[in-house]
Amino acid sequence: MDVDVVGLAESLRGEAERTNERRLLVLAGARERGYDTLESILDTLSVPITETTLVGPDDRLRCEQLPQSNAGELLGTTRDVIAVDAHDNLRPNALGKVVGAVDGGGLLVLLTPPLASWPDRRDEFDASLAVPPFDIDDVTGRFKRRLVETLRVHRGIAIVDLEADSVDADGLTDPAPQLPTEPPTPPADHRFPMATYEACLTTDQVDAVAALESLAETERAVVLEADRGRGKSSAAGLAAGAYAVAGEDVLVTAPAARNTAELFDRAGDLVECLESDAVVDSRRIETAAGGSVRFRNPDAAIDALASADIVMVDEAAALPVATLESLLVADRIAFATTIHGYEGAGRGFSVRFRERLSESDHDVIDCQLAEPIRYAAGDPVEVWAFRALLLDARPPVKPLVADAVPETVDYRQLEPADLLADEPLLREAFGLLVLAHYRTEPDDLARLLDAPNLEARALVYDGHVVSVALLAREGNLSPDTRAMMYEGGRVRGNMLPDVLTSQLRDEAAAEPAGLRVVRIATHHAARSRGLGSRLLECVRDEFGTAVDWLGTGFGATPGLLAFWRENGYRAIHVSTTRNDASGEYSALMLAPTNNDGQALNDRHADWFVRRFAALCSDALDDLEPDVARALLRSVADEAGPSLSLTDHEWRVVAGAAYGPGLFDIDPGPFRDLAVRYFVDDPAAVDLSDREERLFVLRVLQSRDWETVAERLGYHSTGQCMRALGDAVCPLVDCYGTDAALAVRDRFAER
Q: What is the DSSP letter of 133?
């Protein structure tokens, strides 16, 4: 090769080190030539092999190698050089995680096909977008085309065309020399040793350590939020070390031990500075005062909460919400979490878990770190990644949409080509999805632009997106595909037909064509005005004649169930396990648009009602009572079998309500009666919320009397038992046969 690529790499590395920034080098061309060039670069650069990682399918170099599917292992770690082999596959999520792991002064190297032809090539990730009945030829290359455009126009990115033996861009920015900055000032009333604050590199980090001092008090929670490279893990480590020196036991958890490397490095450095005889290793630190910093994986950490004084959770956004909730048992706890990174559970932490945290007994202190530490502010690679993956996408600012109401908005198709040509429109629509949902991530940007089964629709106010829906075409599958699903095979993308076929054993469920609402979000400045309902109405008007059903699936809460019910959707299923990201059980709902869709809805609503009571005493025995109530009220009124208790069963029920009978003798008929009541929601019966929760906890979920009495605030189990009998009385009046009413009248005469 005539072009001195190695010399270019040395220049990029030198400039990156002088400015504490990163640089990106694209080696575009044949794969083998790219690897040969990369090996020459690594042989020349003064980078330890231990500080180099190859993210790709093969172990081609003498360094750490990870497949893109395992890129999350780099969270909480740093490398001087990371190379990504994008020839056979490029996962946007993996790229987002990799970028954040490159340290200041480091290089990110992309091995790609020729850039001109790359968008037209289909890879493994593209194949995942080709959900039946579509195939890979239906997948477009818009995401890669946009990615290539960003590579060409952003500063700090060098592009080498290996086929043409030329440098399309050298990536050098010739920045002005950096001016020295004053060290941050510790707070005057600090509790931690001065060395703790002397180790801080920015004022933000000082503020974070000071916030963590509050964990000396009981019932405290501290949340550190920052983009990657702002020093939140280091701040947590400094605080952990200071507490250990004071004799406290600090329990640290994260998705994996390697994610806490920075935390333990900083904690260990501080402890060794303050104590000469401390025991320090990568997962445990012990101090002379009897304190410690120890790592446990999340499940083990939950079991060890009682033995810890303080708990610190690193990379909290990558943990399931249910795990985070379990950790809240800790009296003093800190969460360090990444924003704009979409790691792991994405925004599950900020969208779902923060609600749980605010409802807890903890006094919560929030601290955000904005000033970069790992690399300088304005780092070109961070600027590029934020734009290329829309990591900082935001909906329009509040004043632009604050006056939007259903009568003043326009319904708009968001065609991928239009989004690609209109960056502000793309950022507003995607930003609204990001802020409103806990699972939106860079992969979803590629799906939005390339997936053939997806549609996007929006309400716009004065040209700005105020409400947006992401829609997926499902069903309409061939007999062979339906049979394969029924026999245990999986079909990508068809969530509702897949569940109804594989789990609920309905081989015909994937025959009707449907449209699932994958996401729907309304700007926070214009919520509770009917805009979401207006958007769903417009979607139904547009697609109602083209599909047999509209559907949705989501983490079930009473509010969301009520919203979908008000918009004509009816519950047909609830999952038997909690969603890892939201910590909630997922509900499936349908809105039929014709007879075929109605038939699908009717049979699954019927099956759902028939099995619900049994589920409540088994897999759903921890389902929140208010969710159970809302689920049954969201089923079609005519669903399920009619109430057909025998005369004897009615005498048992009426005897427990009006006479000396006992619920415990035969709970079965009470369960049938309770389910029928919730589904029908008869106007003639007016039970209190407390009485309905009593039905769920005791009748449906078979909780013991003591637990139910304590949960619902009854003074004794006897009072709780009498309350259940009183609550059954109006149901006997409403549904009871002659046999039941005869029992009622017999005891009413006494």
A: T
Question: Residue 340 domain-assigned?
Answer: yes
User: In this structure, are residues 72 and 255 in contact, taking their beta carbons and an 8 Å threshold?
Assistant: yes
Rounded to whole angstroms, the Cα distance separating 340 from 227 reads: 6
DSSP 270-284: HHHHH-SS-EE-SSE
Which helix or strand (DSSP H or E) is residue 199 part of? none
Terminal Cα-to-Cα distance of the chain (whole angstroms): 105
At which residue do the structure tokens 């062979």 appear? Answer: 480
What is the distance between the alpha carbons of residues 242 and 272, in angstroms, rounded to a whole number? Answer: 11
Shared domain for 134 and 216, answered yes or no, is no
Which one, of 198, 210, 215, lies nearest residue 249 by Cα? 215
Q: Are residues 129 and 205 in the same domain?
A: no
How far is residue 703 from each of residues 676, 693, 710, 712, measured CA to CA in Å?
A: 20, 12, 11, 12
When pLDDT is cut at 50, 70 and 90, the band that residue 77 belongs to is: confident
Contact between residue 426 and residue 419 where contact means Cβ atoms under 8 Å apart: yes
**Domain end among 348, 369, 390:** 369
CA 475 to chain CA centroid, nearest Å: 26
User: Which two tokens mark 23?
Assistant: 């640089």
Structure tokens given for 25: 């080098």
Checking if the pLDDT of 750 tops 80, the result is no
Q: What is the pTM of this model?
A: 0.86
What confidence score (pLDDT) does residue 81 get? 97
Q: Which amino acid is at 491?
A: V
- The three-state secondary structure class of 71 is helix
Q: Measure the CA dihedral 396/400/405/411, to 10°.
A: -60
Residue 462: inside a domain, yes or no? no
Annotated binding site for acetyl-CoA: 520-522
Residue whose pair of structure tokens reads 């934020």 in the numeric block: 386
- Summarised one tens digit per residue, pLDDT across range 196-244 is 999 999 999 999 999 999 999 999 999 999 887 888 999 999 999 999 9
Contacts of 187 (CB under 8 A, 6+ apart): 197, 206, 210
Grade residue 36 by pLDDT with cuts at 50, 70 and 90.
very high
Residue 636 pLDDT greater than 60, yes or no:
yes
User: Token digits for 10?
Assistant: 């040395």
Length of the chain, in residues: 750
Q: How far apart are CA 314 and CA 308, in angstroms?
A: 16
Could you tell me which residues are annotated as the binding site for ATP?
205, 374
Q: How far apart are CA 488 and CA 740, in angstroms?
A: 47
pLDDT in tens, 519-558: 999 999 999 999 999 999 999 999 999 999 999 999 999 9
How many C-beta neighbours within 10 Å does residue 12 have? 25
CA dist 219 and 223 (Å) reads 14
DSSP-derived letter for residue 227 is -
135, part of any domain: yes
Bridge pairing between strands 249-253 and 279-280? unpaired
Q: Tell me which H or E stretch contains 285.
A: strand 284-286
pLDDT digits (tens, 9 = 90+) for 563-592: 999 999 999 999 999 887 677 899 999 999
Cβ-based neighbours of 515, under 8 Å, separated by 6 or more: 455, 471, 472, 473, 474, 539, 543, 547, 549, 550, 551
477 within domain boundaries: no
pLDDT (tens digit, 9 = 90+) per residue, 467-523? 999 999 999 999 999 999 999 998 989 999 999 999 999 999 999 999 999 999 999
User: 356 or 591: which carries more pLDDT confidence?
Assistant: 591
Total count of domains within the chain: 3
> 23-28 and 102-112: which strand pairing?
parallel
DSSP letter assigned to residue 55: E
For every residue of 459-513, DSSP letters joined together read: EEETTEEEEEEEEEEEE---HHHHHHHHTT---TT-HHHHIIIIIT--TTTTSSE
Instruction: Assess whether 27 and 134 both reside in one domain.
Output: yes
CA 569 to chain centroid, in Å, comes to 24
Residue positions in the annotated binding site? 205, 374, 520-522
State whether 133 and 14 are in the same domain: yes
